[in-house]
Write a structure and sequence with these properties.
Blueprint lengths: L5 E5 L9 H6 L4 E4 L12 H13 L3 E6 L5 H4 L5 H17 L4 E5 L10 E5 L5 E5 L1 H11 L5 H4 L2 H12 L3 H12 L11 H10 L5 H22 L2 E5 L17 H9 L6 E6 H4 L7 H8 L3 E6 L2 E3 L5 E3 L9 H17 L8 E4 L19 H23 L1
Parallel strand pairs: 1-2, 1-12, 2-3, 3-4, 4-7, 7-8, 8-9, 9-12
Antiparallel strand pairs: 5-6, 6-11, 10-11
Bound molecules: D-mannose (DNO).
């Protein structure tokens, strides 16, 4: 039998309340981490990389994937200093390669990384989940951010629903909504102010989806050949949520986007992070079929399930429940592994992580990063591991 997926867990570094020992006890062998203390755009030195690598290895684990080396806003907006940031990006990749770390995740979402309106959405059993509630985002956009243009984007009915939602919140809840939406990069506690955010939006004034795609193409054509020379495989993470929010364009949301960016710079170093949670928030993304068609380019898997609601809202469900068929997804993944094994590829053990988890049981005693509880993810990993083994043994033994 060919090898299993490489089980990994995200770790935010030494300040993460979820310890490396907990990760090891969850059964993961790999760690997904990044140097979150280095500001976006600055070079990651080999010293800093090795420091982190040694900590991971001392716990008996492997630093499997970097998530993420963030792309500086100057590159996304094609500002005059983008060349400088591209050079610095390449230097970070070379330094990672020198330290033996060769898989790098990144995204191309304007200004904000992933966006949720509720980071403590209680399920019937008391577990806490993350949620994107469309009326809450509309309320933020229309009445708190007061973005010019928002009124033309939301229909009358949506505006009314958003207003009703806003009126149902007390002052603290409003504040919490702003904090949730304005939370900056993962792994930091930074939250943008509304004014800072408006400043960022200003820079995207002339940038529509076509232009953002061009900027992504420029990034790929500049970075990928150098990554390939260094032996680094890049894997882009899809937009989360996978549709435009607050007037900002999104260009990594659906299959044609993925095909387009792969074709913009064909190379084994130009690959995908297949995040079933992000892509699964759109009903028109047929995830198992996308894996069948694009599987060869998948370098990293984020396995998660969202429950979609008719108005564009969704919440994070149990890993094997929700709107996506995790069984069919895993079957497609296992088939891709089989194809790799048959053709002698050395990357059959695709790194996967249980993406996010509910807060459960003892998780409420820790101030973990939203979505990154220990027990909730342990549960997700255990379920996914069982699913993988069941499918593998049924199909191929
Ligand atoms: C959320 C994550 C994202 C992801 C980055 C990748 O939990 O999936 O923060 O890490 O967008 O660059």
């Amino acid at each position: 039998m060919f090898s299993n997926l490489e089980e990994t867990f995200r770790w935010y570094g030494p300040s993460d309340p979820v310890t490396l020992q907990a990760i090891s006890q969850a059964g993961a062998t790999g760690v997904v981490t990044a140097l979150h203390h280095i500001p976006s755009g600055e070079v990651w030195s080999t010293e800093e990389i090795l420091k982190r690598k040694n900590i991971v290895e001392a716990a008996g684990l492997r630093w499997s994937v970097v998530e993420s080396v963030n792309v500086h806003e100057s590159i996304k907006t094609a500002s005059p200093d983008r060349e400088k940031y591209a050079e610095q990006y390449i230097e970070s990749l070379r330094n990672l390669a020198k330290c033996g770390i060769k898989l790098v995740c990144y995204n191309f979402m304007p200004v904000l990384d992933w966006t949720r309106t509720d980071i403590d959405f209680r399920l019937a059993n008391g577990a806490s989940a993350l949620r994107f509630h469309a009326p809450a985002l509309a309320a933020f956009d229309l009445y708190l951010l007061e973005r010019e243009g928002a009124y033309t984007e939301f229909g009358k009915q949506q505006q009314e629903t958003a207003k009703e939602y806003l009126d149902s919140l007390d002052a603290d809840q409003k504040k919490q909504l702003v904090t949730n939406v304005m939370a900056g990069l993962p792994g930091t506690k930074d939250v943008l102010t509304i004014d800072q955010f408006r400043g960022h939006l200003e820079k995207y004034k002339g940038i529509d989806a076509d232009q953002l795609k061009k900027n992504l193409t420029w990034f790929l054509q500049t970075i990928i050949p150098e990554a390939e020379n260094a032996g680094v495989k890049m894997c882009i993470h899809p937009d989360d949520p996978p549709f435009p929010i607050m007037g900002l364009p999104r260009v990594v949301s659906k299959e044609e986007d993925l095909v387009g960016l792969l074709n913009a710079c064909p190379s084994p170093s130009n690959g995908l992070t297949f995040c079933t949670g992000s892509l699964g928030a759109r009903g028109d993304n047929d995830l198992p079929a996308m894996i069948d068609r694009l599987g060869t380019h998948i370098h990293f898997l984020h396995l998660r399930n969202v429950k979609r609601e008719p108005d564009g809202s969704f919440y994070e469900d149990n890993h094997l429940e929700g709107s996506s068929d995790m069984y069919a997804i895993m079957k497609s993944v296992v088939r891709e592994q089989k194809r790799r094994a048959d053709s002698g590829r050395d990357d059959v053990a695709i790194p996967m992580r249980p993406d996010h988890g509910h807060k459960l049981l003892d998780d409420f005693n820790y101030d973990t990063f939203p979505g990154y509880s220990a027990t909730g993810r342990l549960k997700g990993l255990a379920e996914l591991r069982g699913l993988e083994l069941g499918i593998k043994n049924t199909l191929y033994q």
